[in-house]
Amino acid sequence: xxxxxxxxxxxxxxxxxxxxxxxxxxxxxxxxxxxxxxxxxxxxxxxxxxxxxxxxxxxxxxxxxxxxxxxxxxxxxxxxxxxxxxxxxxxxxxxxxxxxxxxxxxxxxxxxxxxxxxxxxxxxxxxxxxxxxxxxxxxxxxxxxxxxxxxxxxxxxxxxxxxxxxxxxxxxxxxxxxxxxxxxxxxxxxxxxxxxxxxxxxxxxxxxxxxxxxxxxxxxxxxxxxxxxxxxxxxxxxxxxxxxxxxxxxxxxxxxxxxxxxxxxxxxxxxxxxxxxxxxxxxxxxxxxxxxxxxxxxxxxxxxxxxxxxxxxxxxxxxxxxxxxxxxxxxxxxxxxxxxxxxxxxxxxxxxxxxxxxxxxxxxxxxxxxxxxxxxxxxxxxxxxxxxxxxxxxxxxxxxxxxxxxxxxxxxxxxxxxxxxxxxxxx
Amino acid sequence: xxxxxxxxxxxxxxxxxxxxxxxxxxxxxxxxxxxxxxxxxxxxxxxxxxxxxxxxxxxxxxxxxxxxxxxxxxxxxxxxxxxxxxxxxxxxxxxxxxxxxxxxxxxxxxxxxxxxxxxxxxxxxxxxxxxxxxxxxxxxxxxxxxxxxxxxxxxxxxxxxxxxxxxxxxxxxxxxxxxxxxxxxxxxxxxxxxxxxxxxxxxxxxxxxxxxxxxxxxxxxxxxxxxxxxxxxxxxxxxxxxxxxxxxxxxxxxxxxxxxxxxxxxxxxxxxxxxxxxxxxxxxxxxxxxxxxxxxxxxxxxxxxxxxxxxxxxxxxxxxxxxxxxxxxxxxxxxxxxxxxxxxxxxxxxxxxxxxxxxxxxxxxxxxxxxxxxxxxxxxxxxxxxxxxxxxxxxxxxxxxxxxxxxxxxxxxxxxxxxxxxxxxxx
Lengths: 427, 427
Description:
The structure is a homodimer.
Chain A: E1 2-10, H1 14-25, H2 27-34, E2 36-44, E3 73-76, H3 83-94, E4 98-101, H4 104-120, E5 125-126, H5 137-144, E6 152-156, H6 159-171, H7 175-185, H8 193-196, H9 199-213, E7 223-224, H10 232-240, E8 243-254, E9 257-268, E10 280-286, E11 292-298, H11 302-318, E12 344-345, E13 347-354, H12 359-369, E14 374-379, E15 387-394, E16 397-398, H13 399-410, E17 420-425
Parallel strand pairs in A: 1-2, 1-3, 3-4, 4-5, 7-9, 9-17
Antiparallel strand pairs in A: 6-8, 6-10, 8-9, 10-11, 12-16, 13-15, 13-17, 14-15
Helix pairs in contact in A: 1-11, 2-11, 3-4, 4-9, 5-9, 6-7, 12-13
């Protein structure tokens, strides 16, 4: 058997601990699969005194020292798009060490440049754990679904958001209350902004989009919305129409360019993405003539994320080749954004209106003026002189037309709040 | 860029044609992903005069000549566990050529020996297309879900069977009628035995089981049943109980050994496998602590299967390493079969009985004597003196206990036909 592959791990939080445990407890099995042993030669973590449920030797105080030690592979689990994580990855690649990382923010921002550095030095920079935890969607896009090109990739990529949306649907409770509950249970961070604001999904989508379309990761050309605006009422109405509301990341090749969006979408019940519940993740890849493929499972947490890190390490041990983003980094194209306003979609619309004669006629008139036609409608409850909800599903219309109509409707003195607008996504 | 990878293709049926078309029409894109061009240098097919919707040069009359030509990779798409396919694969590996194949029968029977031959000569023998068409489940088991071991792999692996079961459910028609229709539409072969008898699923399961558990593919230690016995009535009753009936291949690590089975199973509605419809395939992998993962998509046909073949070719072009079945072939263990009779499961039972007093008491008595308890029951229709159905769901019981009770019940003169017994599968 070949000499063992030497690993240095920077960051011993949940994922780092999971990696140590898997490499230790399944050492012999993984050596058989890798064709050589895998040895942890050094670790580094901010808090060296924290009580941990595993043992590991050779602590190094300064993570940067790992880049110049005797490891073959540096596993970066510190996180963050700048700072130590970025410096460590750069130094490791400059010093001839392969890198495995779960750092989606770093790669979404600096992916092309880091991949160029890795490829120049004939090194691997692997990041299966950066997207969808244990679901091997990075490999699937990089290696498997390549024969017919990819038309679109769309996914539920943030377990926190999906947990909150599922809980809201099951319990009928409001967003703020469910978020608090999720924080208490450890499904949401104390500062949940990156998750619920859509930023984490955006980082992941930028990587999937790059792999799918051969473009450099591009966060700038992406419309990003979070889940903060969702109400229990919307979730209930969606259900009545036969839909579920999910936070999706969608990257799609269109005739005008690549459309990248993170937003709440109405997904028809019984489709695969609609049935991704709780903290799970799910991804649909539309692979040209080969058809649509769906992948789901646990997208975060110790064991699923460690599973992805370990599979990357074993690939390096086996001598894995192939460019970081599936094509040589130097050839990754600049993304040409689609004209997203022209994209056709059906929409869910909710208006909070004064229950006075003529309000429905006014809304219908504004939509009609913008050439937006209505497929179905619910007007629930009568409260003369008070506020009631009017909910509609439109036929397929260009986004800009619906936005124009909604602007006009919002200006009416019979309309009490900003109208809610959620696109349908075939999934 | 490196010199092109030279490919020879044996067999130009649906899949072979799809491979030629993908390699031709997406030549530049695939070269960018592979790091080198991919050139078809020779092809061979039984019928050289057949009209084809693609062009290809350098026809070779004898497929065996491909094993000694100048190709780097021989793509074997002839099929069959013996004969030309086997000889060609052996000769190619002996002559220093990598092999890509979709031949599940060949590998299920001779996989270990062929893998040893490939590994001895430092060659790749890749078979993503042999299982589940475009779903990259071979790579997923070989490379991705390895950190925590696999407890079970279960799948809908035969599109013909799943199409027939779906059509029976949707239309309420019987098996024979739907099979005839499927044959007319090209979803079933003129001789459908290998599909509907479960043999094709068995070949695929043997490969998945090997990848999951590090054992040599083993068809002998596998219980294989087909779908011929299914009735529209069973599908209807299943639906009333909240289940769908699917032909599953299941391989599971148990305390007594590995349990490998191909049979009809009751799958709870809303679970992933229950929602795999029509000719699609779906696979669940229970990956230890990392949790359950689900993968679905088109499992057969030109583009999906070609997609898998092309991804294998590109992996070889990139310089892919790693043993054929995930571990060195010489180390693949002999499968120790589980005591499947002791396996606990709930069961769906249907009895066709004479509608006379005492018949239910007799059935319940026999089940009780075998310690099998009943969770729910449907007795539909009254036709004194004639045949009616009694349908039950049992609590979890050992298989041998249920079989013992059914044997006793079948001996009763009040029972008109062999009782139907379908296990539940959590999926």
